[in-house]
Amino acid sequence: MITAQHLVYRYDPKDAPVLDRVSLEILEGQYVAVIGPNGCGKTTLVKHFNALLVPQDGEVLVDGLSTRDAKAHREIRRRVGMVFQNPDNQIVGMSVEEDVAFGPGNLGLAPAEIRGRVGVALETVGMLRLARRAPHSLSGGEKRLVAIAGVLAMRPAYVVLDEPTSYLDPAGRERVLNVLWDLRQEGISVIHVTHSMEEIVDADRVVVMSEGKILRDGAPRDVFREADALRAVGLSTPQVTELMGRLRALGCEVRPDVLSVEEAFREISALVGTGTGGGR
Amino acid sequence: MKTLPLGQFIPGDSPVHRLDPRVKILTVLLLSIVILNSGAVEGLVVTAFLLAAVVLSGLSAGRIAAALKPLAWFFVLLFCLHLFFTDGRPVFAILPAVTHEGLERGTAVTWQFVALVVSAAVLTMTTAPSELVGGFEKLLRPFNRLGVPSHDIAIMVSVALRFVPTLLEEVERMREAQVARGADFGRGGLIRRLRKMATLVIPLVLCTFRRADELALAMEGRGYHRGPRTYLRELKFTRVDYAALLAVTAFLIGLEALRFLPL
Ligand SMILES: Nc1ncnc2c1ncn2[C@@H]1O[C@H](COP(=O)(O)OP(=O)(O)O)[C@@H](O)[C@H]1O
Ligand SMILES: [Mg+2]
Questions:
Q1: Domain total for chain B?
Q2: Would you say domain A2-234 falls under CATH 3.20.20.450?
Q3: What integer pLDDT is reported at residue A277 of this predicted model?
């Protein structure tokens, strides 16, 4: 479990805090989406989860280890893997496989064990084929997958991803999201920072941030029901949710918490079939 | 093209490619000593040795020539300096500056440099950069106790090599962006051109610092710490490597020893 208690952080002591008494619990195996407008403190928050930042006030505990304890940092970083926003700046190896081997090498594992882990990690993200390629010759989506594999080779219990689909084309995005889904199936906790609503309708939990505070924390269905609150901080709901909202505004009897095209289709076809004179 | 100067690695499966990088590095070191000490006879033997290495490694003459080409003017200058500024017996009566001694010295010195470059090129063309770094690291490892941080040096070098193509891409992107806004890098006097280059250098430096910052965080996040670590492939001598190292060492030391024999 990752626990944040009354977490406060400022980059500049003169400014208002970037994180203002944030409290949060993330259970093992949970898929948690963190959303919020640009600059609301998402990146700052998740950097606390693997002790890259240490709270100025309050506390962050990873499976009971406090990030204030510098001696625990190595263990915390093994448990909590972090995939940054720009994959170019986190790939250190001269080839894909060597990059994935960097973390296990830091753990001092034997070469045979490293090879095993590199193979499994690359397999998981579907990049085994490109194991020998140079990083700069990969597409943006492939670089992301390598960055994820590099973290998986550490066998983390939690993987934090900071906007893992930004700058990707739809196909690359799809691949990354599928990998995240697989991780969750394997029981790894995924903490997915994003500002795209469409990506997180399947999350176990959505944490909505605004100006350094947590605005909402709950199941996607419950969070999206309050479309107005989201719009007020500059976030939009998924398009199908939006569509249902507009239909409701017209007086149609549809559910307000629709998340998928499938659900929307059911609602609309029920509407067309029964009430408002179907088949017009 | 995103290449490093001096012989970029050319993947292959030749006997030279397959040798342990440490054997190749040590050979080049020994060979350099011999080259710098050699007279005419040793020079011929070393030339034959280098030719054999090139043939064995399956590198084309064109590749070797490409490695030498950037230094062509340097070789010509070196040769001419010795040719004209060595005292001795003139070759032509009308051109007293050109001496037999000058011709000899010029040829010998130029040959030394060409041979050094060729031997380094064979090494870098047949050894993947990561193997090269790994080889140096392992050769330096016995000096850890004397305070040589072999592991840290290896990480530094490999991260630097990893980022060369990325930074070159960045320069290209910035240049294109400025050209799109009407900059012209090809025109104007030297000062104007330099000034235009500066418009690239400053953003590049800033950008590189930001990258380095993020990279340091990412490395820390993946458990990086100074000191010993382990690698995907731990280099290991095979019987062929031992044999090759023994043969090459014996050959080159023998060649050097010849000079001290009264022949
Ligand atoms: N290294 C830094 N130094 C100073 N201010 C920063 C730094 N990183 C972020 N900030 C500021 O902190 C706030 C939150 O940033 P960040 O956590 O990156 O937000 P998000 O990831 O939600 O876009 C922003 O106002 C940003 O300008
Ligand atoms: Mg961010």
A1: 1
A2: no
A3: 47
